[in-house]
């Protein structure tokens, strides 16, 4: 199910004069190709929590996994609002992406199988999971919860020719 391509708006306050909006296809290239993302969640006491993780872009959303007892899983149980960031640490080139949305747990084994296949395709055989009982199970043991984050708003920070683009998405 493809969503309508979001409208891109350049924020002139944070862009060079004459900057144009970054194409959504450029943002998708970053979202699909990035190996590491940074997930920001909120602890139950309101303090922020940030952690690096692997994620895959599938069916118009980012998907990530975590153990059920990990801090991020406990945070998400209390507050599903998240930000995922990726990009480059270079100053003069590249495109950094900030994706905002709500993390929703995926428990359907058919959807989990598609997520597992996407992980193996992107990250290799060390990241092979089997979907069973609403969780992803690693061949070497251990279960993981999977979360889907459909974007509500995405920011693209182009470097070199500096520009900030914002894409907005419909809310479910």
From TrEMBL:
Gene Ontology MF terms? pyridoxamine phosphate oxidase activity
The source's superkingdom equals Bacteria
Q: Which Gene3D superfamilies match?
A: Electron Transport, Fmn-binding Protein, Chain A
- Give EC number(s), comma-separated: 1.-.-.-, 1.4.3.5
Residue ranges of domain Pyridoxamine 5'-phosphate oxidase N-terminal in the record: 29-136
Question: What Pfam families does the annotation carry?
Answer: PNPOx_N
Q: Which UniProt keywords apply?
A: Oxidoreductase
Q: Which PANTHER family match?
A: HEME OXYGENASE HI_0854-RELATED, PYRIDOXAMINE 5'-PHOSPHATE OXIDASE-RELATED FMN-BINDING
Q: What is this protein called?
A: Pyridoxamine 5'-phosphate oxidase family protein
Q: Which organism is it from?
A: Streptomyces litchfieldiae
